[in-house]
Design a protein that fits this description.
The complex is a heterodimer. Chain A is α/β, with parallel strands linked by helices. Helices cover 37% and strands 22% of the residues of chain A. In chain B, helix 1 crosses helix 11. The chains are: A alpha/beta, B alpha+beta.
Amino acid sequence: MISIQQLLFEYPASSFRMQIPSLQIRSGEHTAIAGPSGSGKTTLLNLLAGILVPHSGSVSVASTTVSALSSSQRRLFRLQQIGQVFQDFQLLDYLTVLDNVLLPCRIHPSVRLTSQLHSRALQLLTQVGLANTAARSITRLSQGERQRVALCRALLLSPQLILADEPTGNLDSATAQRMIQLLISETNRSGATLIMVTHDSSLLPRFERVIPFDSFLQPEEVS
Amino acid sequence: MKQSFHLASRYLIWNRGQSLTVVLSLAIMIWIPLTVRLALHQFEQEIAARGQSTPLVIGARGSRTDLALHALYFETPPAQTVPFAEVDRLNRSGLGTAIPLHLRFRTQPNAAGESAPLVGTAPEYYEFRSLQPARGSLPALLGDCVLGAAFAQRSGLTVGDHLLSAPRNALNLAGDYPLRMNICGVLQESGSADDHAVFVDVRTAWVIEGIGHGHQTVNRETDPALLLEADESQPVTASAAVLPWLEITDENRDSFHFHGDLDEFPLTAVIASPAGEKQRVLMLGRYADPDHSLHCIRPPLVIRELLTVVFRMEQLIRFASAAAGVVTLLLLGLVLRLSLKLRREELQTLFRLGCSRTTILGLQAAEVTLLAVPAIVTALTAAALTSDVASQQLRTLLF
């Protein structure tokens, strides 16, 4: 269960202000967050991941109150519990495609890179149609291909919560549907919760719940 | 840690140009002072050992340093000579052993351009320096020579080959002629100046100098054109048409003879090994008179004076190396800082994924290690390969 209570967040030196009185998302639920640019969708994902900390209120994921954790505890929490797909992919140029997918286990303090994890990374790449690019430099991939690599990286350690920020933004509709199918099937298999930010209304029917961010929260209204 | 090294190595390979530059800069920063230190240490040890093993040297009055370097390293001979009688006098005095040194010639450069100082001495020299032949034997006959190990290797000459002496002045027809010498042995390596020299008996050196010679038989029965005076009441006087032998062979060896008084034959230095401390003091006393044409020097003292120059040079080099090292480190620090600025986005990605500060520090430590280890290995290898040459260059530079 994800729970947000009386959340207030502001960026320093900005008029942006986010206030969420209450938001609950059940474990294993597939939730889409839709809304116009600048409405704070990405900010919400960052607050859930513990990348940002609210000024007041609480953010809890399962039994952990993320907002109460220290900086190092939040980092460990992210690594152990969350798979993230960033809007700008955030892949490392100097690593190969496979090394980028395996990055979470290379920086994880307790996960060892086993042959099973290696096989899983290759399997995920096969599922997104990039098996033959595993040894290639990430810089030689198109934007759409990079987005798929970022998706594989998020799914590698089968996290309990997947936060995806417009993961199909650079994909054609057929590939986007395939990616959503992969996300849904992977989360179904592991019982993970999926929260995805999207602008693509054609994808919304695939989700159990859609939160229209602008109706839920108008930054202008609360400022 | 293994994962940190994997990621660090990927980063360094991706930025291979910059990585190589950093490795080379670090390597050079370590290599130069290390090589200088090693070379100086090697040089100090070698020169001090050579000096210690040569108690006293007697030579014509002049520069003490020049005489020491001449007797120890076969450098340029003093302008004045020592009469051979001095060796005889010292040996008969019972104060110790005197070993003659005659060094005024070099061997002729061979096809490879290799040439060596030609040292005329007595059999006692080999015993004094503990020199043993690795191949062949020590020179026992007039015209024989034995090669130092390094010169033999450089020149490619061996036992049974021949070697020519180089005349001091090729245009002086009345002067010394090149003598073709028989190589009778090659000495074992000693790690000293002896490795780079060619040794002959002192009498052979005098033959090269023109004091002794051999030539065809000249009497009233031979070609009259070779005689200036053929009067039966007078001894025969040969003309300049009589050519000296340019090689000493078994057939002509007996014809070789010396003109003049043996006691007056020139030496360039005499190595003296006193029988004891008292004899050493007595020997020094013999030559203490400033009016004496010869003086007796103590090479260990002269070498110690020389080494103070080396120490001063070392301090200068250390200071220069330290300054260069500080500049290099500052530049590397700047490069590292700029690199971290450029990599801020990458660090943000790692933090966003949940990477701990410890892991980030581990990654940076792995990168530094992967740069430092090859730099140190390169520097050590280069220092090991170049310190010998540097030591030799240092000797050339100083002497």
